[in-house]
TrEMBL record:
Family per record: Belongs to the vinculin/alpha-catenin family.
Protein's UniProt name: Alpha-catulin
Species whose genome carries this gene: Ibidorhyncha struthersii
Predominant place of localization: cytoplasm
UniProt keyword Cytoplasm present: yes
Amino acid sequence: SQITTLINHKDKPKRSDKTLQAIQRVGQAVNLAVGRFVTVGEAIANENHELKEEMSVACIEARRAGETIAQLTDVASLDHPESDSHITIFTDKTGVVKAARLLLSSVTKVLVLADRIVIKQIITSRNKVLATMEQLEKVSSFQEFVQIFSQFGNEMVEFAHLTGDRQNDLKDEKKKARMAASRAVLEKCTMMLLTASKTCLRHPDCESARINKDGVFHRMRLALEQVIEIVTDSRPNGENEMAPISIYSGIKEFKNKVEGLRENLYFLSKENLSTMLEVILEHTEDFTDSAYTSHEHREHILELSKQAKMELEQLVSVWMQAQNQKTKDLMEDLEVAILKTCQCMNELKREVHSAATSLAADLLKYHTDHMVLKALKITGVEGNLEAVAEYTCKLSEQKEQLVEMCRLLRHVSGTEPLEITCIHAEDTFQVTGPQIISAAETLALHPSSKIAKENLEVFCEAWESQLSDMSMLLREINDVFEGRRGEKRVYLSLPRPGKHNANLKALKPVKLDTEEQAKIAKLGLELHLLTSDVDSETEKWEDQENEIVQHGQGMSSMAYSMYLFTRGEGLLKTTQDLFHQAEIFATEGTKLASALQAFSDQIHDDDKPLLLLEAEKLISVCKQLQITAKASAQGKSATFTKVDACILKTRNVMTLLCQLLPLCCKLLRKKKAGNGCLKPVPPWREDRIRTGTNAHTPERRAETFGIKSLENHVTNMTFLESK
């Protein structure tokens, strides 16, 4: 940004002192920023000898370019820069351009090298996990298993930290969702691996116990491999990833092409358009061929598919005529054909959405009592092999229904991240179903085995957990379809202690009852309105990558998830989830306050004191929220009071945010227009460098998905050993 200011400065004959001083400040700011950047680069180089030489060269080039820019912009003390023998930006603009190019290329090189180091760290961590997994697979004594699993737990925690940071850094929402899915698998499988391995050690000759354990190890290896694929942006054997095409994305692209005919009649062929429609209609066969689609939905989909073909034929006919002769009547006919084709596709989209979501709602309601799982647990403990076989058949049927539901939901998910979540859910049901069956068979063969019973409990918990997640997913899909929330998503990487804690029986889900929801409804609604206001303010910013905007968007997303909690919806399912979300929200607010203070150092404006005052207020209310969220609460009444206080304080933070965002936007516009004095960017604080380079600080740990539960697996090893 600063370099662009320098390169684009206007070559006016008269240069005021203010202009000269501003140019000098920008040059100095660039040089100082480069110096700080290079210091970090050199520190990275010293820790990674294999890239030290390359990194050092890039750092030297960057430092040299920064110093050159500072020299060429040293113009404030010159009365007549042109007549002076000293070379400046006014006498040698080419020199500044060259220095800027060198600076940008060397800075890019440092970033690429640093990124290679991060990727290497993740791969090294993955390799350590794989090596320890191999040891765990071959272990034969319980004592040896305890020792190795303790090491494995620590390595998984390290891997979770590294991949959590990487997930937060990813810009591609699709990759982010894939990473979140893979990390969720690893986190859940860690507990499964523990109980499945213990069962195998207790019953070494049991074939079903071995199958159960092998399934967990295989799934973990696949998830580890997928993380590396995302991190390195590669596929095994060099194959390209074939993204599954959904009906929604197909219709969206088809409509874009059709509507594009208004601007250009020649940009695509009729064959191209016909092929696109054929692909969409082929995918609708997933609905019409499904045994779970109602007769009414099937008939409507077939009817609309037939109508879509007819509308396209009519459109192509008018389109071909319009290419030969652009009369007013023909262009009007073309507009009508375009509208009718798009309307038909919208109706088809609405019909498949209705078919998929009504099926999902019915299935989730039907399976909400978990009767088959309960029956498997009872018959397993009784050692009734015949009854277990009967209920495993019923579970297999249930699995087929849920897998089909996920496939149909994927077609109507509306966004790529939700599409990936549907694929992940389908895989989970496909894998967990057979694992429950093998765990139930093991228990039926050894009905008095406490560890076999515990193992079945863990796999049943995973199934129930996925069913519960499907309800949340269905709501999100409906929200996107109805345009209530667009593509905005709450944080997927939040720890969910009520669900993923190692001691699965210790934390029972605590939700608000109907009466409590009614009491807090008004406060929740106010929070909802404030999130809309904040979203509206962030959309006004030209630079959506601005640190202030990103913190604001993140806080708005978290506040929205807290609002959903007050309605008994969303990903925050228990009061414990809400309190943890409030802590993360307060931390994000403190980060925003730091960004605001850094921004205030760059401006001279009458509103600067107001900005600093509001930033101080923000720090204060965020601290209050953090204290409230961390305070203990025993009993139903105290817990509700704490929930009420957290929502209230979150509302106060969001109210401040609504005032801060327009103020910052105004100051930034003034600064860009040249009304505010440019100042050099303040030097990084030491603690900021530490936060940026240390992935193991408590703050980072709190934001990393599943780490708390992994750490619990490790700390509970003494309990395991005693058992």
